[in-house]
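Suppose a colleague, Dr. K., hands you the sequence of a protein chain of 219 amino acids and asks what its three-dimensional shape might be. Before reaching for any lab equipment, you can write down a predicted structure in token form. Begin with the sequence itself:
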Amino acid sequence: MTIEWIGPLPSSNYDVGRGGERVTFIVEHWTDARIDSAIARFTDPRSRVSAHYIVAQDGRIVQLVSEDDTAFHAGEYGANQRSIGIEHEASGMLPPSDALYEASARLHADIAARYGIALLPGETLVPHWAIVPTQCLGLLHIARFAEQAGEEDDMFTDDDRRKLNRVYDHLEAYEPLVWVSRLQRWLAIAIRSVFPNADLSGPDVETGQPYRAETLSRR
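The predicted structure, expressed as tokens, is then:
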């Protein structure tokens, strides 16, 4: 995942550090404008607002504030200190694209892994309107972030899974044979230690060939 750093922002638009708080949730936003307009607003010292990330329609991800710092995005300072704010390039005239959802899902999965957050819509994935009265986050579907982030967290492709299943099936079939072979060898050693001339003829359980007791010391 490639993230483009844009910053630092004017000091009026964020606070250094989090006042001793730790990140426990993500606040979801939409820009209600094109990404260039959103960036221009966040880099304007008069706006006194910001977000940690913006996810674009084409899947590009830009970062404006370090996760170690407090972005001014939620409208409530305590929530700002405990959260990461993610803006999405979407509006009533610009529905969120599949590329946007896919990129945001990767970002969500990465954040969740680093902070040990379970991605739960309404709990750890919080719409902006749940904190202050606003139309934000508009048309975005938080549950889709969580669902696709869960898929992103699975590193294996379908082909990988088929290969792994073949390995598991082979090991599952082979494991009992390994233990039976070991048991045959142990019994042979035990019997020969008491009866040196005992007849140990019979098939080797592993190869199906005649069992060769003379090789016990080398196996």
